[in-house]
Amino acid sequence: EDVGSQMDRVVTEEEWLQKWEAGNIGFHKEQGHPLLRKYLDVLSNGRSGLRIFFPLCGKAVEMKWLADMGHSVVGVEVSEQALKDFFAEHNLPYSEETVPEISGAKILQSTSGNISLYCCSIYDLSSSIVGKFDGVWDRGALVAVNPCDRQRYVSLMITLMEKNSSYLLVTVSYDPNKHKGPPFYVPESEIKSLFG
Which strands form 161-170's sheet, in the order they lie side by side? Predict the structure, then answer.
């Protein structure tokens, strides 16, 4: 399959912010993702109290599910509106603070302390700021990252993972010549080479 048609496509942060402002968020799943329910035991592997990372989290309802199961959730999202909507839609009280290490970034944290959402570019994060994770739920993140940034994205994710962590990745399959993305088409061969 020819993915060349997408390789140069770049979606700016501004465009993502506009999608949230306009409510053009067809990628958001109100009911959560059935694949997370299905593979939850793969992610947790019988362990409780895990730290789970949601890259480009939007207002994913799964963050609430996992927190309710006793895990601690960290997300990152460029749209502050998405994060505020998340707390509002689940009636969760939260506090807001600046992140000293990242200029202009904020962290919105549930009062219960088990959900911490960073409002900034994912590329501003590092393990020295957010720590490492036992699990990653990548639903619509790798496929939303600009194709030219994929290697950078995956390299960052690898630095955020504990030794025995699980990475659940949801991708999309379609003919890349008929759709310009996002979501972008990432062939399985590329996933294997990116993550090694």
Answer: 94-98, 106-110, 115-119, 72-77, 51-54, 133-139, 161-170
- The pairing of strands 51-54 and 72-77 is parallel
pLDDT digits (tens, 9 = 90+) for 35-80: 999 999 999 988 999 999 999 999 999 999 999 999 999 999 999 9
Q: Which residues are annotated as a binding site?
A: 16-27, 56, 77, 121-122, 139
The gap between the terminal CA atoms of the chain, to the nearest Å, is 21
Summarize the annotated binding site for S-adenosyl-L-methionine as residue ranges. Answer: 16-27, 56, 77, 121-122, 139
The span from the CA of 43 to the CA of 136, in Å, is 8
Q: Is the pTM of this model over 0.70?
A: yes
Domains of the chain with bracketed CATH: 13-195 (3.40.50.150)
